[in-house]
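Example record

The entry below shows one chain as it appears in the dataset: sequence first, then structure tokens.
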Amino acid sequence: RNFSMRCGTLSTLLLGAAAADESMWRSDRLSVRNESMALRYYLDGVRVSPWHDVPYLAGDDSATGRPLLHFVCEIPRGVSAKVEIHKSVPYNDLVQDVNKDGSPRYYTYSPSTVNYGAIPQTWEDPHHADAHTGLGGDNDPIDVLQLNEGSCVAGAVQRVRVLGALALVDGGETDWKLLVVDVDAADAPAWRELGDVPAERVNEVREWFRLYKTSDGKPPNEYGLNGEPIDAAAALAVAAETHALWGGAGRARCEFGGEPCWGMEARRSVDWRSAGAAVFALLAVAQLYFIVTAVQRKRRALAAASPKKKR
């Protein structure tokens, strides 16, 4: 009886581990809470980082044959508050940026014309010269311009299709802007390639990000590649490189405001796929152990109960 109960429990755990491997980041398991003037992320009640723990990949896109990526919404369309993933606070909460005098930072040029955010598990390394611009990165996760008409919810995690990218150069640093759409939204446009995006929409966002700092007395931003966007395949290659840089040895150099970037030194991301496989293997070994132990006990019991032969 004990053997049956143990094996039944272990089987349930094995199935649970396998299921967690595929569904750990379902939206119903992830929650975002507004606590202490910050947006904090929890997975099944356990606090996690939107930068390091939300997976980079979000499955396959059947419409294009390319991978989907996860997108963390920081600034919804039509909002002026400059909210971002904070690189040095524990768990990288989403917080409103501040000016040098400590006051909250807002867009003064106009409210955001896009749903703005970042791709998790990416990093534009300042010490790595980008192949397209020849300049180092801006020390942030790669930026995203989500082009859906509707506004995203601050803190939301979406599955997005990459359509292209603009090579913004901000203060001598490479600051890529991925052009994407949320594929699960009711208003999701049927755009599959860069050429499907109306030219006026691309021009609108390109000019906005070129000029938005001028209202604060700063010079316009510039663009590499003469301001021409790259296509989806090239943009995904750029994103993949920033994902590799996030996981590379140079990540320990990341710092912000004189402090190390939280999660970029000793702490590694929670790889739920690898973790699920590891748990599955350990439980399989444990189940085998109980099976062998039970068989041995059964044999000993049978041997003890059988009548002994006379010599």
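Notes for this example: DSSP finds four helices and 15 strands in the chain. The longest helix spans residues 272-305.
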